[in-house]
Amino acid sequence: MIGLVAAALAGGLHAGIPVHGVAGVGEPTFLTATSGWTASVEGGWVRVFVGASEADGDAWYDRAVATLGVTPPALAFADEAHGDGETLLAFRDGNVGVVVRVEAGARAVAERLRAAIVDGGPSPVTPRILRTAEGWACEAPGAVHVAVSGARAVPFRPGLYAEAPREVVAWDTYGRATVAR
Amino acid sequence: MLLLVACQAGSPKLGDADEAPPEPSVSIAGTAAFDPLLGGAGSWTVASEAGDEVTVEVLDAGGAVVATLDDTYTWEGAAVGRYTVRATLLAKGSPVAEAETPVDVVRVGVLDGTLGGDRIPLLWHGGGRGAYVDDGGAGPTFRLSAITEGDAAVAIPAPWDDLWAPPDDTLGQNLPAAYAWDARPTLALTVDGELGGADLTAAIDGWTLTSGGVADGGTLVFTKDEALAPGPGVVEEPLTLRWMAGDDLAGEQALPLRTYAMLGPPAFEQTGSPYLPWVAVIDPALRAMQGVAPDEAAVVSALVDHVYWDLGLAYDTQWGASAYTQYTTGEFDGAHFDLSGFLDRRRGSTVNCTDCAAILEAFANMVGATLQYTILVRDFNLNYIKAVGGSEYTRCPFGTGGCGFSYHAVTTPDDAATIFDATLALDGDDNPSTTPNTELLVQAIDGEEYLDRLVLSGRVRYAHTQKETIQ
């Protein structure tokens, strides 16, 4: 799989940013398919979104900037960026959006994340909702995280549901989300 | 039971009844059954007439004396079985009368218990990362593998204290349960033990035995006599299960139950996991609101206090950035709250209005109070406020260059007619644009008054009123 991954070119459609292994970025928390993932970094946090298209990334980025309590100034970084570069740096590179909110050193974190953007690689696999003898379960080969919502769980049996989940979101290693309903 | 045996008989002569010596007699009455491992003990009263002294002995089924009682006539028991307590009246060292009564030494207890009735499912978020576990609103409350271990009764364990994760195995554990505050729970107890021929009953103060009887393997079902609680809160009043032999106490055991008295079932838009009461949320929240009136305004107001004062939050006075909540569609639609991350404070305690609205909305809906978020749009200057975690009123929470909000998220139960806001305290005096300031938490404030007090200048309206999603 590694052989299929190429260093990213600026802009365009990227595979994403590895959810593990970027220096200084903590364990990811996966949000919704339209929200991306988030993680702690020293003195703050980062939020990352990998859209299926550049337009997706652009919409996410606009929303991320617009929903700050204070409208940040524009910066020269990637395709577009906002912040002071020290405590806040939000940027978009093609379909990938990132917000870095830290006490200090936002630009360094943003540069590490941008440098970690990869292109190519296999497409993410959509999860499946399966009927089993005991109830319902989910299958998501290769996923680093699976989020299930709207299911009635079998008491004290994690991963087993008495009714089919309403939605299953699977996340791959580059932070791309696929959804089964 | 009373057995009276006259060993020395004699007919009094007619006409001299006053002088006739009383006939020697003895009687004994008292405990019919008890469980020594549950604090039970035998206790008898002995009455006698004539004679010199009374001895009381306990005999086993083979007639062997297992205990000779002192003049308190009490016995702490022996192995399970039926015994005979014999009182013997002596005169000049010889028995002149006897009385006997049987007593059962029993071993009794409950092997498991399940709180029933209209239970509300509880969810443990497992420290987040999607590992939700819920009890289905029907799981066992406690389960024991045996009622006796060695020579001691197995106590029902204390309630499970981990608010984040449930036990891997519920055996040997005691889990909390949730109800609406005015529910009348039931408690089903499975009886275990060696009862022999003992005729026991069971009682819990404040509860009525509504079905079942005490028999090995039988099930007792108690129903609470009154509402679970006078309002929302955590109910941990110690219950005592009393095993009775007639009117006598045969033993008692503590029932350490923890129940959450909610305003009602969860009020989220979605149902099912994870839109259930999270133990990690409702336990501290209900403790914080203990004693509050069971109505939505009072409950949400208590939650405003809880979020504003108790959670150690601080407003992001640099950027007003949300650490735990994102709008997923449009500009302010589809708010999605990372509640798991927030409970762990994975990204710190610095938050913004979107976070505070999401926290308040999630907490309220979990305890049964309907709440939505709504957005004040857009770009306006502020009167004096005191942001969460702050100590001073200011019109410029972002410093001299930042005297307004680009937007502001609050919560409402009624399409912005009434506002609750845990992000900030308003200036509650007649002139909110000047000092001095009077602290006014935003607890059921009229929507128009809220705008008047918050907004110094700018055209502001409420928009995007809706419910959030959580994880």
Give a written overview of the molecule.
The complex is a heterodimer of chains A (181) and B (471). Chain A has 181 residues and is mainly beta. Helices cover 13% and strands 34% of the residues of chain A. Chain A is built from two helices and 14 strands; from the N terminus they run ββββαββββαββββββ. Chain A has helices at residues 54-66, 106-115, and strands at 5-7, 29-30, 37-41, 44-50, 74-75, 80-83, 88-93, 96-102, 118-120, 128-131, 136-139, 145-149, 167-171, 177-180. Chain B is built from five helices and 37 strands. In chain B, the strands form eleven sheets. In chain B, strands 1, 3, 5, 6, 8 and 9 form a six-stranded mixed beta sheet that branches. A five-stranded antiparallel beta sheet of chain B has the order 14-10-18-21-20, with no helix packed on it. A four-stranded mixed beta sheet of chain B has the order 11-17-25-22, with helices on one face. In chain B, helix 2 (296-310) crosses helix 4 (353-367). Mean pLDDT of chain B is 93; it is low at 1-15. Chains A and B meet through strand 2, strand 4, helix 1 and strand 12 of A and strand 13, strand 27 and strand 32 of B.
> How many beta-strand segments of chain B?
37
Fraction of residues in H or I helices of chain B: 10-25%
Class from helix and strand fractions of chain B: mainly beta
Kindly provide the radius of gyration of chain B, computed on alpha-carbon positions and rounded to a whole number of angstroms.
Answer: 34 Å
Record field, number of beta strands of chain A:
14
| Discrete helix count of chain B | 5
- End-to-end separation of chain B in angstroms reads 66 Å
Biggest sheet details of chain B: 6 strands, mixed
Low-confidence parts of chain A, pLDDT < 50 over ≥5 residues?
none
User: Oligomeric status of the shown chains?
Assistant: heterodimer
